[in-house]
Amino acid sequence: MEYAGYLFTVIAVMTAATFLTRVLPFVLLYKVADHHVLVFLGRYLPPVMMVLLVVYTFKNEDLASTGFLPELGCLALTAALHLLFKHPLVSILGGTGAYMALVQMGMS
Amino acid sequence: MSLEHSTNRFVFQASLPVMFGYIPLGMAFGVLFSDLGYHWIYATLMGIFIFAGAAQFLAVGLLANSAGLMEMFITIFLLNSRHMFYGISLVGKIPNKGARRLYQIFGLTDETYSLLTSSRLPDWISPAEFQFKVTLFNQVYWVIGCTLGAWLGGQISFSTAGIEFVLPALFMVLAIEQYKSLQKPAPFILALLIGIATLLFISRDQMLLISILLSMSVLLMIHAGKRWNTQATSSPSSQ
Prior knowledge:
The complex is a heterodimer.
Chain A: H1 4-29, H2 36-55, H3 69-85, H4 88-104
Helix pairs in contact in A: 3-4
Chain B: H1 3-34, H2 41-49, H3 53-64, H4 69-79, H5 83-90, H6 98-106, H7 110-118, H8 127-152, H9 166-182, H10 186-202, H11 207-233
């Protein structure tokens, strides 16, 4: 395995790059954790992130055509199940099951 | 039943959707990685040390193109830069210290962040224990997926098409949970508008990073505006 040294280096570089993105705010902002701006962001950023991650589902879909409808429909189903039964696993597995059925029938 | 045991069970149940997402996604990465012709153990090592979905998929492309180390560093850093915003809203909210704290910061993926910020804990669970174990359990799922995929390689026939939808479905459920605890529609509507506008008019590839930056700018402006108003209307002695 003459490539071992190369791969170890690559993995080390990528590990450093990824870890840096995660640790920077904690290093830079630790002393000002109770600053009013951070308290405000700590409250409102999580809901914003969650919605953006949901919208991110449509990254690969052409929003001008109807290609996004299976995703939209299954997200709506997930939300409806969650409001009805209030059980995360029921909602997630219901929505995913419906999406898998659509994909495997070739509709998405 | 010991407390330790039920904490594990609670964490397992909370992280179950992530398991259904991480194992097939990790396997997809492993299968791609196995095409490079390297030993499967390196896929395991990448899952353990890098532990970032999109970055590992990109790493396969970078390795296939024999990219330079500096190019790899910059590309992966930029791809993962959204993680900084997760940290910004968690500074001061991680009770763990020392090695556990460091590990939690290391393992702050989209899904771990989502579970940490959305879960309502029963009072018999310590938040520190919950946060650490969610991070650990999620990584275990991911490493299992990466390893299985690279190990089995091309022998897998994917009849699981579409299972990656568990992650959007998880985010949908967590968004609803966030709404239940915040009880204010404004940040949700703001993010929805900015997210869709970014997809439509700016960029699909960079959607997440750009929409996070835009949303954060708007949040900061709203915050500055509110403070400016309250300071303008209140008397100097009240400050």
